[in-house]
Amino acid sequence: MAGGEIVFSGMRPTGRLHLGNYWGALKNWVELSRAHTCYFCVVDWHMLTTGYEDTAPLQDNIREMALDWLAAGLDPARCVIFKQSSVAEHAELALLLGMVTPMSWLRNNPTWKDQLQELAKTRVGLSASKPESVRIIPSLGVTSVGSAFVRPEEDEGDVERRLVSSEGNSEGNYGFFGYPVLQAADILLYGGTLIPVGQDQLPHIELAREIARRFNSIYGQVFAEPKPLLTPAPRVQGTDGRKMSKSYGNGIELAEGPESLKAKIMGAYTDPKKIRATDPGHPEPCPENPPGCSIFALHKLYNSDEYGKKGWRARREECMQGRIGCVACKRDLLTHLEGPFRDFREKRESIERRTGEVERIFDEGARRARAVAAETMKRVRRAMRLA
Predict the structure, then answer these.
(1) Residue 363's closest CA among 48, 66, 103?
(2) Which domains, from first to last, does the chain contain?
(3) What are the Cα distances from residue 227, in Å, to 97, 100, 223, 374?
(4) H or E element in which residue 45 lies
(5) What is the pLDDT, as a whole number, of residue 144?
(6) Whether pLDDT at 352 is above 90
(7) Phi and psi of 136, rounded to 5°?
(8) What is the DSSP letter of 83?
(9) Res. 174: pLDDT tops 50
(10) What is the value of pTM for the model shown?
(11) From CA 318, how far away is CA 312, in angstroms rounded?
């Protein structure tokens, strides 16, 4: 592995990845692995915080995601690729860090409240296009959704208490509430100093820093304080104009086949006010088309000097001047997507044909990760007088 800073990051195993995963994180991982010591973890224990009821697809999802990682360019010779559950020290350190983490830190975690809101939407199949079915509980920052989430006899205080109570729901379980402590353990176990995150994950990193500081203040200097690495990443729109997300069903997979790719592109959201090909279009977010055009967003990623002839700036001008229609624009985009998607699929299929390749990479990654984790835990136990 390279030298430099120590980078740690992980993904929950949800199966095949989409373009938002690639442009938002995976592409950056590949670049970081060329300059730094990197640990990239399949955080399968984190997956259980909300997905504990159905683990049947877990192993298949892990493998599918790993294939996408490797096909995208993550090289096990340059970084450590492993599964969280293969390194028991993650659980041990999370337990010990939990002893020094105040409950108030977890209750005040804004991303916990945000995820409660998303879970509420997911449970009842809420579409973001139906805002009339949503109301906000200000004291908790939680969205309540219709009769499926709010009982007639309840006021907002009742709903808040129920959401944070244990009723067998994901919102009430210990793992979901305490997952920032496990996340801190993931990072601190490897001395992670640079943590690539999006803006919405900054509270998690700050909480990990606070936990590290508190531990060090009680037991002496053991952990380095991690720093967030905010890297510019495009917001990839899904086929319906919203942010690309599996929960919205609007994703385009990295390994999308030619026919399904064509179907998704030809059916994607463009500009509802551009009725005729000669009408002026609104490709970028504006009052006339607030989300912006999903097709143009992909032109900006793939219609460049590398893959295109005219480039996305020329395409924007043609659209705004009514010199190209949406159907023609979509067909043009498909010509730019053909090469990179084909190359990705071929590389992925080549890796998949190597029997046992993914398993060998995970085994070797776990061996390397355990060696570092074991040394960290020796220092932790000595500091806490447990050894």
Answers:
(1) 66
(2) 6-105+179-236+356-383 (3.40.50.620), 107-171 (no CATH), 255-351 (1.10.240.10)
(3) 18, 21, 12, 23
(4) helix 44-51
(5) 33
(6) yes
(7) -100, 140
(8) E
(9) yes
(10) 0.85
(11) 10
